[in-house]
Write a structure and sequence with these properties.
The chain is an alpha+beta fold. Helix content is about 20%, strand content about 30%. It contains three helices and ten strands, in the order αββββαββαββββ. The protein is globular. The C terminus is likely disordered.
């Protein structure tokens, strides 16, 4: 079952006190980014976050769930009605999350992952230091 845009917008509103929250649609679900790092996603209208030390400390009774078959386990966030809790959770997790992967764009340059802003537009950032000058 795919996630609905209504649930996505609800979660984005709950995270609106944070700067630089973005998402990317992925096969009917939504990957969530905080300051360019993947923090989790919305899968089957459930907010799941990566399993980090900070997330486990803030949610010691959290249930581990699979976002989809073959994926790594993630933590189910039950306290989605609390803006304060979600803000604290994302901020606490940030330093433990890996930096975005860099990808070769096939034309001699390196690009960051695609991500979307709140409007759903896709944005591709280019590291100009790897682009050959003309």
């Amino acid at each position: 079952m795919a996630s609905g845009k209504e649930y996505l917008h609800f979660i984005l509103e709950q995270l609106s006190d944070l700067d630089d929250i973005s998402y990317r649609p992925m096969m009917g679900e939504f990957i969530l980014y905080y300051r360019g790092k993947i923090v989790g996603g919305i899968y089957d209208d459930r907010l799941l976050v990566k399993k980090t030390r900070s997330a486990l400390e803030l949610m010691p009774a959290a249930i581990c769930e699979l976002p989809y078959e073959g994926a790594k386990e993630m933590l189910l966030v039950d306290e989605v009605d609390s803006k304060v809790f979600l803000t604290e959770l994302f901020e606490a997790m940030f330093d433990e999350l890996p930096s975005p992967k860099r990808k070769n764009n096939g034309i001699g340059g390196i690009t960051d992952e695609l991500y979307s802003d709140h409007s759903g537009r896709h944005i591709r950032l280019r590291d100009q230091s790897h682009v050959p000058s003309l």
